[in-house]
Amino acid sequence: MTTTATEHLLRADGVTVRFGGLTALDDVGLQVAPGSVVGLIGPNGAGKTTLFNVLSGVLRPTAGTITWKGAPPPGRRTHHLARTGIARTFQGLNLFSMMTVLDNVVAGADRLATGGPFSLITGLGRHHRDERELRARAMAALERFGVAEYAHRMPGTLPYGLQKQVALARACVSEPELLLLDEPASGLSGEQIGALADQIRGFSRDMAVVLVEHHMDLVMEVCDHIVVLNFGRVISTGTPQEVQADPQVTEAYLGTPADTSGDVNGAAR
Ligand SMILES: Nc1ncnc2c1ncn2[C@@H]1O[C@H](COP(=O)(O)OP(=O)(O)O)[C@@H](O)[C@H]1O
Ligand SMILES: [Mg+2]
């Protein structure tokens, strides 16, 4: 495939992030084509979440550029994100514990409202019609993710796997063009991870996906393209087969004792 800027939904070029003396990302490049699933892997501390924070606009890089559909992303604040067409889930759940499942998803649907981001919290400035429509969309998203029957529960009362589905519903309700998933399989059973693989493949019919994940079987199964980070640098990119065969990738994982008990060793298999 040719790689002109406009063919990419999102691209990062030369992204560097420094936190004081620590270089979390060092000259990182990444391209996401529409409808593709891109895996972002690497040992703990490699910079994966930091790159997500840059891609989603919540962290301004020390150097480098992000291009969304050939232009700089319009907003650099969290509440601009969904309006841009980028949605994310977080490492962990990040659901609002004091809001019902339904209200959590209504929060994600806010880009479809006219009242602005703070109307959601304050209840001010939004028409009743908007409110009804948002709730209907949020219910439809809960149904799509199989958790509609829990709409009026508090998230903390649900099993972890169901809370993860609520988090996915919240991310997808805004009908994003790009979905960033930060370790969606963590804490799930093998069976749940299998179902997640089917879901991610289903997402890519409607949107591109960038997936940060330690479960290598999942990554190798669903990704079209993989980028491997280690100590903030891209050490390998390619198809799942190419990356798996790259000795640098094996070395990065085997050189990280904290990770060797987990399934990250799948990269070396
Ligand atoms: N807000 C921050 N302030 C200082 N250091 C940070 C911050 N966020 C991440 N880091 C550091 O940046 C590096 C990359 O972290 P992170 O992106 O979370 O890695 P990963 O998601 O790949 O495990 C780590 O060394 C981490 O400690
Ligand atoms: Mg992380």
UniProtKB/TrEMBL annotation:
Gene3D superfamilies cross-referenced by the UniProt entry: P-loop containing nucleotide triphosphate hydrolases
Species this protein is from: Nocardiopsis sinuspersici
GO CC annotation: plasma membrane
Listed InterPro entries: AAA+_ATPase, ABC_AA/LPS_Transport, ABC_transporter-like_ATP-bd, BCA_ABC_TP_C, P-loop_NTPase
Keyword ATP-binding: yes
Classification lineage: Bacteria, Bacillati, Actinomycetota, Actinomycetes, Streptosporangiales
Keyword Transport part of the UniProt annotation: yes
Entry keywords, A to Z: ATP-binding, Nucleotide-binding, Transport
Protein name in the entry: ABC transporter ATP-binding protein
Domain ABC transporter, chain residue ranges per copy: 10-256
Molecular functions per Gene Ontology: ATP binding; ATP hydrolysis activity
Source organism, top-level taxon: Bacteria
